[in-house]
């Protein structure tokens, strides 16, 4: 029997995505309903319950292929950005309309009810959020979904930062949050994914998938040394080298995104878990 990764395959014992017909046995198949996230962020959960474990966080404007929307207000489907599968509150979604034209390029930006910073914001959008700009009004961009964003905080959707490490460094001091992908809280692989996405480099969501799919092994790194942008992996953890000596990572020990000497982090993780670095990948 073919093995499927539950994180990336829209397959349940009772339902599967229509494109899997012929590959899997399922009592029913469903065509996707194109949706888009309209909440500032939304948790993607393993089951349709508010106390279900969180796998990741969907950002405003991300596409979501819904294969089921229940009467209880849950949608089961797959995120367009990284293919992650799970359950999202249906209230966080709306039918996909105009394609996003821009993305949030600052850590966070406010949505105002009008083109004035003196108005009370109605929402805050995180870096990587996708928006559709309908027009510009002074220093503001009017969004097709309603509200105004300071235009300088946006960038064309297809634009790219020159250095993903510089993006990651903006998150210094942000709290660690399992499954998080925003400056209000994010985890180790979320930091890598969001930072690389800002630089136009798509990355998988979880550290094991990143280790398997990003870049190439850094040759003889123990002897030749590490470089800025190298990704250092442990079992269940990843960090980003800022230079040959310092590691930037969101971690559960400090519950923050921190910068520290790589040698100190390596020794601490080895002492705490008994596990050493599994690989270094060079994007």
From TrEMBL:
Residue ranges of domain NlpC/P60 in the record: 158-283
Keywords annotated in UniProt: Hydrolase, Protease, Thiol protease
GO biological process: proteolysis
PROSITE patterns the UniProt entry points to: NLPC_P60
Alphabetical list of InterPro entries matching this protein: NLP_P60_dom, Papain-like_cys_pep_sf, PG_Endopeptidase_C40, SH3_16
SUPFAM superfamilies the UniProt entry points to: Cysteine proteinases
Keyword Amino-acid biosynthesis listed: no
Gene Ontology molecular function terms on file: cysteine-type peptidase activity
Pfam name, any one: SH3_16
Region (Disordered): 202-221
Source organism, top-level taxon: Bacteria
PANTHER family in the cross-refs: NLP_P60 DOMAIN-CONTAINING PROTEIN-RELATED, PEPTIDOGLYCAN DL-ENDOPEPTIDASE CWLO
Family statement: Belongs to the peptidase C40 family.
Protein name: Peptidase P60
Species this chain originates from: Alsobacter soli
The organism's taxonomic lineage, starting at the top: Bacteria, Pseudomonadati, Pseudomonadota, Alphaproteobacteria, Hyphomicrobiales
